Amino acid sequence: MCGANISNNRNFYQKLPKPALVLAPLEQVTDAAFRYIINKYGKPHVIYTEFTSADGLCSPGLERLIPDLRYTEAERPIVAQIFGRRPETMRHAASICRKLGFDGVDINMGCPEKNVCKTGAGAGMINNPALAKECIAAVKEGAGDLPVSVKTRIGFTDITMEEWVEHLLETDLQVITLHLRTRKEMSKVPAHWDKVHHVVEQFKGTETLLYGNGDVESLQQANQLAEETGVDGIMCGRAIFGNPWFFNPDVCREELTVTERLHVMLEHAYVFEHFFADTRKHFLVMRSHFHAYVSGMPKAKEMRIKLTLCSSADEAHEAVKEYLETPFVFNPPPLHDSVNLDELRQIFA
Ligand SMILES: Cc1cc2nc3c(=O)[nH]c(=O)nc-3n(C[C@H](O)[C@H](O)[C@H](O)COP(=O)(O)O)c2cc1C
Predict the structure, then answer these.
(1) Ligand 1: which of 154, 238, 285 to mutate, most ligand atoms within 8 Å of CB?
(2) Quick one: average pLDDT of 124-132?
(3) Which of 48, 98, 217, 326 has the most CB atoms around its CB within 10 Å?
């Protein structure tokens, strides 16, 4: 794992295949452990971290948040996602991401959570394009020569994507990712893939790439949607639950044996402990992964009941031992470089 190496992967977005296949940020899901596993079993073209609060990074809480920004060198290109509403902290947070060696910085302008939106951050930015532009300018300053992108939605209450995208395009971003729902729609309606063509034309003649996001369930569907709509990339999130092979064109999860799938589930659990032993991150987050991994297997219900009680990788190993045809052996990956917190604190001191 790394933390302080400087990337030499500048402007990588322009060199990616089309469509670029991108791992979405998923808070409490795509942490460094799961990203390590995804990267090993089905590498996407780009990986995004879970979102991290810019205000938090510029506070005494920095130390607690840094584990959320851990990554392994093999994950490159890897983009740090931040959220906030204060240009000053957004600038500092972007500098911290640069210092940590990320390949890009993404600004979350799509989070629908009430407590985020009411401060004007996340999807709240859609209602305040002037502030959004200030924050983008600030992040660009802090990110230096790293590419800056925005992930957002197609409107707050109503679909207003043409006006919103027009504002964003003025800021000369590397990528705009559109989660094809409004903030009001949360995740309750199907993503509006039928509407994305309204904005595809607006990107023509600009340097900014357009990625689409929402409800993509397979690589085949991703490629088909890109072909039909003309977007430059497709970002996939929930389809990765229990399926770290999602981005691997040569593997179909359903064709793997129960033992192969359980071995990867256990590896994920041990990597989680290995990477986060020195943090306050709780093993409980692994339980929802366990449920996703065993879903669709024979005896899934029986396994789920046992796994729900597990509080460590060893306990999970014990719980599924009887379903394994070959024993599981864990080979720990290298640990992360230590981060110089004092150096990072200097950025916002
Ligand atoms: C559990 C969960 C956590 C999420 N966390 C983030 C996040 O940190 N940042 C972000 O931009 N979007 C986040 N999202 C939204 C996803 O990135 C994505 O836009 C959404 O799930 C739709 O894509 P999908 O249908 O491929 O999952 C989250 C979604 C879920 C379900």
Answers:
(1) 238
(2) 98
(3) 48
